[in-house]
Design goal:
Layout lengths: L15 H19 L11 E6 L5 H12 L3 E6 L11 H11 L2 E5 L3 H10 L4 E3 L7 H15 L6 E5 L4 H7 L8 E5 L8 H14 L3 E4 L2 H5 L4 E4 L11 H7 L18 E4 L10 H4 L6 H20 L3
Parallel strand pairs: 1-2, 1-3, 3-4, 5-6, 5-8, 6-7, 8-9
Helix pairs in contact: 1-5, 1-11, 2-11, 3-4, 5-11
Bound molecules: phosphoric acid mono(formamide)ester and norvaline.
The site of norvaline has 9 residues, from helix 6.
Length: 310
């Protein structure tokens, strides 16, 4: 699989075979790491990690996984570097590419990822933008694959905000042979451009795409019920309006009544009880902590593949 030198901006850029390859590589890395097998293909390699927003999972899984592989990942928080105050994204990309073999970035506007990728001479990994969160969805697929032994033919129900995490499901689920049933409040639907991609993919791969504002309809027959925060990073000023608009969208056992018998619950975390109650979140149905753990193996796989060290 030739992923060397590519940017990892959105799953829309990757084929079914490439995504499956990254998942299989992640599973192999998971086994190696669990065995504490010595494996240091990234000795001498470094990664600059720009974080314009907070992070627990993405930061810790990347630093830990990259160190295991023998490399060095540098955390560059919002007030650590000149970016945003004294220096442009362009110059930052040009300079960091001279020091580092990879640039990972968590940004607000997705155009920041595009700008970094345009000027960087090394691969850029999107660690969450306002529009996409592709690393998260790779981890989600690995977790679903572990749970069900496959992806193809399964139905994912999304209940909540039409946000970055949902967008990354929408740009990949059909390719992987999965149906997607989405419920968002009318004013919080996913972006039209992303709906267009999801529609075209659903037709091409012969999968179901449902977009509704009825959570009960969305979860009907679903194998995986997923939600996320109602207030993403950067949306604090909208909190009051959002809390109002999302009434009735909390994932509960009652809401999941018509899901498939084997349904599981997923959430990228961090979680607030608004969007899912404790009964579901801490139940046997919930695979959220496996999902969090898998963030590590998937970012390791992406790093190795983009560096051609896989
Ligand atoms: N799921 C996720 O990206 O979590 P963090 O914001 O903690 O990195
Ligand atoms: N949608 C959330 C995901 C956090 C991992 C956000 O963007 O804040």
């Amino acid at each position: 699989m030739q992923l060397k030198g590519r940017h990892f901006k959105t799953l829309a850029d990757f084929s079914k075979e490439e995504i499956q390859y990254l998942l299989d590589l992640s599973a192999k890395l998971k086994e190696k790491m669990k065995r504490k097998e010595e494996y240091r293909p990234l000795t001498g390699y470094s990664m600059a990690m720009i974080f314009q927003k907070r992070s627990t999972r993405t930061r810790v899984s990347t630093e830990t996984g990259f160190a295991y592989l023998g490399g060095h990942a540098l955390f560059l928080g919002a007030s650590d570097i000149q970016l945003g105050k004294n220096e442009t994204l362009k110059d930052t990309a040009l300079v960091l590419s001279r020091f580092n073999d990879l640039i990972l970035a968590r940004v607000f506007d997705h155009s920041n990822i595009e700008e970094l990728a345009k000027h960087s001479s090394v691969p850029v990994i999107n660690a969450l933008s306002d529009t996409f969160h592709p690393l998260q969805i790779l981890a989600d697929y690995l977790t679903i694959q572990e749970k069900f032994g496959k992806l193809e033919g399964l139905t994912i129900a999304w209940v909540g905000d039409g946000n970055n995490v949902l967008h990354s499901f929408m740009t990949s689920a059909a390719k992987m042979g999965m149906n997607l049933r989405i419920a968002t409040p009318p004013d919080y639907r996913p972006q039209d451009e992303v709906i267009a991609i999801a529609k075209a993919d659903a037709e091409k791969y012969n999968t179901e795409l449902l977009i509704t504002s009825d959570p009960k309809e969305a979860v009907k027959g679903a194998n995986v019920i997923v939600t996320d925060t109602w207030i993403s990073m950067g949306q604090d000023a909208e909190a009051e309006a959002r809390l109002k608009a999302f009434q009735g969208y909390q994932v509960t056992m009652e809401l999941a009544k018509d899901a498939a018998e084997n349904w599981v619950f997923m959430h990228c975390l961090p979680r607030k009880p608004n969007e899912v109650d404790d009964e579901v979140f801490y139940s046997d149905r919930s695979i959220v902590f496996d999902e969090a753990e898998n963030r590590m193996y998937t970012v390791m796989a992406v790093s190795l593949a983009l560096l051609g060290k896989d």
